[in-house]
Amino acid sequence: MLTIVLLVLIGALSAILGSLVGIGGGIIIVPTLVYLGVDNDILHGITPQIAIGTSSVILIVTGLSSTLGYLKTKQVDVKNGSIFLFGLLPGSLIGSILSRYLTLESFNLYFGIFLIFVSILLMVRNNIKPLKIFNKPKYEKTYVDGTGKTFHYSVPPVVAFIATLFIGVLTGLFGIGGGALMTPLMLIVFRFPPHVAVGTSMMMIFFSSVMSSAGHIALGHVAWIYSIVLIISSYFGAKLGVKINHSIKSDTVVTLLRTVMLIMGIYLIIKSFL
């Protein structure tokens, strides 16, 4: 009974936070499953690989549920966002295959460093002005949001492919969906408006999670019994996160999230050396 309650809380909370700020929630699911399974043996049969694979499967539901919600409010740039899939999808598959070589110690170290990097990125993302270096007329895209406002931004295909291929590898390797990096990438490099970046990021998370999950399922890295509970709670959590997105300042949530991630990252790095 305790296991089910914990899984429901993990799924719902990660999906609410993930869909609210466009990061998917895998960055919460993976270390939590490792902590409860490997460190405390509350969840049986969990290894870093199984935590990563299970998270990837859950993020399919979180990504789809959130994307459908953001599509209704026209916060998903499907046409221009699809350009990112050319690098993100193969990268996600490659990363899922590479994850088989992670040991517990290397997982703690690398994931800890990754968490700290993302937390710092979340701290400074509002203070970094969008780069104008790629803002060239031949790459210009337009998007009309739900309020009827037209936005202009640039998406150079080569830059998009290289950046998303790298993010895709990290997505499959750590089971994090890629939103933690995709949202800042769209904001800073490609000059997406924030509300469109969050919605489009969730679409990226859905597709990248489908691809990375295929690799993890083939390798047997999914705990299906735990996944069912997490999927159900994540589905409702994602829907709630989209609703909250329209009524609360996401900056408040980002501040809490980046603080938790920073502490968790430092903890994992220290743990990798003990």
From TrEMBL:
Per the annotation, which location comes first and is thus the protein's main one?
A: membrane
Its cellular-component GO annotations read: plasma membrane
What keywords tag this UniProt record? Answer: Cell membrane, Membrane, Transmembrane, Transmembrane helix
Fetch the InterPro entries from UniProt.
TM_pro_TauE-like, TSUP/Inactive_protease-like
Q: Any stretches that span the bilayer, and where are they?
A: 7-30, 50-71, 83-103, 109-128, 158-182, 188-207, 219-238, 253-270
Q: Which domain of life is it from?
A: Bacteria
Membrane topology per the entry is: Multi-pass membrane protein
Q: Where in the cell is it found?
A: Cell membrane; Membrane
Would you identify the family this protein belongs to, as annotated?
Answer: Belongs to the 4-toluene sulfonate uptake permease (TSUP) (TC 2.A.102) family.
Q: What is this protein called?
A: Probable membrane transporter protein
